[in-house]
Amino acid sequence: MIRVTCAIIRNDDNEVLVVQRGEDSDHPHKWEFPGGKVSRGETDEECIIREIREELSMDIVICMKMEPVDHDYGYKKIRLVPFICDTLDDMPVLTEHTDFKWKPLQELVSVDFCEADVKVASMYMEITGNKPVAKESETEVEQSAEVESDLRKMINSMMSMQEAEWVAASAGENPVLFNKLLGFSFSPDRKLAFRASWTLSKVIDKYPSLINPHLGKLIESLDSLDNESTQRSFLRILSMSDLNLVSQRHHGILADHCFKALNSGFSAIAIKAYSMEAIYKLALIYPELAHELAASISLLQGEGSAGIIARGSMILRKLMDPGSGAGKGHK
Asked: Maximum distance among all alpha carbons in the chain?
């Protein structure tokens, strides 16, 4: 049986990337989730990152490994290992496929997929669209432990933007739910912390002021977090927040952390992007940071990621805008 990986790649609009096979392929003109065969001595994770870079010149962040799918095509048997991934790159560079499309979740059912990919699409849609969010209580008042257990299960099973927005709306009106979500974001359970922090960022999209009392806590946690997915969510929240509300000490911690992420060769693409945004906001408070930020962005221009180049170019334009306040220096 041939072991193959594929990536369900989501963009910022929660659309999924599908690619079309060529005329001379095993399944001409069929659509699939991009990926490829696992090489000897290679892990599934290493394979999917390599394949996406080789086939599409895209940087991805792995969010979840799904259950493998076995399929017998008659002339070959494959075990397809799907990964749910995020990216900032909207424009893949096709080297093996003839076309690509970004499809909303509800339109995946109409895609003319290869047979194994049909199974993966169905499994992904079940995970993201058809799971109950939580069971209703049989009594009006539940025990606190039961409430926390249900919420924990709900967060761990949540994958779709629709579900996250539902929780965001609820958390905005329910301080207890918001505080539980914030607490789960610091959990040692890596999956729970990622899901909770990702959902927390969607809450802040709708209710940005809710996070204001907790900005210092998020900043102080950055250096000690070993969960890259949670760190990405925290940096996204901080990049959208009013940094004037935290102390000068917190400004220094955040600036140091973000510059280290920008200048590191190991930071994920999303980490770099949100770090740039956060430092830009700090540069509005401390204009002397603008020159260092511009230099770091210039070094990133050769990394080859369309997403990071576009984001960096946008911030450079804002830095050069006389009305932005950044780059002026102290008088």
From this structure: 75
Task: Check: CB of residue 34 under 8 Å from CB of residue 19.
Answer: yes
| Lowest-pLDDT choice from 117-126, 198-207, 266-275, 313-322 | 313-322
- Provide the H-helix boundaries in the chain: 44-56, 115-129, 144-157, 161-173, 175-184, 190-206, 215-221, 228-240, 248-263, 269-285, 289-300, 306-320
Exposure string (b/e) for 61-92, b if CB count within 10 Å is 16 or more? bbbbebeebebeeeeeebebbbbbbbbbbeeb
Fold category of 2-129 in CATH: Nucleoside Triphosphate Pyrophosphohydrolase (3.90.79)
**Per-residue confidence at 130, pLDDT binned at 50, 70, 90?**
very low
Give domain 144-324's CATH superfamily: Leucine-rich Repeat Variant (1.25.10.10)
Q: Does residue 97 have a pLDDT over 70? A: yes
**Whole-model pTM over 0.70:** no
